[in-house]
Fold this protein.
Amino acid sequence: MYSSKNFHTKKQHTQPKCTSKRLTEDQVRLLEASFKLERKLDTDRKFHLAQELGIPARQVAIWYQNKRARWKSQSLEMGYTTLQQKLDNALLENERLKQELAKVRQMLVDSTSSSTSYVCDEEGNSDLIIGEPSGCVLQNELYACLIGGHKGRV
């Protein structure tokens, strides 16, 4: 049978003693330099660094693990920032081109005579329906394609 002494004994919850201490600036500098050379830590290197730094090998391993996690987060954030900047630049360029296109269309509207009509086919090729001065052929074809909104060659 169970003795009453063992049955009523409460478990004591004790925290394990942490033997690792905070790293000095020199230790961190050496670990950072080592991390720049190689992001993965092999066993020999771990023990060599631990001995050189005077800390437990487990602390070196944990530092590396934490550093890789921080490095990955920073890399993802930098990648996101770079992509966001490229998107912003592309949107600005797109807006600038739209404004430039609007100006060109307005210039064509202003410079084209009202007696000339144009037709664009689905490939963006245009044909003149009514004649116009000989120097305006290219300008009128461009106008017809721009106004018609067709893409293709002029």
Remarks:
- The chain has two domains: 21-94, 112-154.
- Residues 112-154 form one domain.
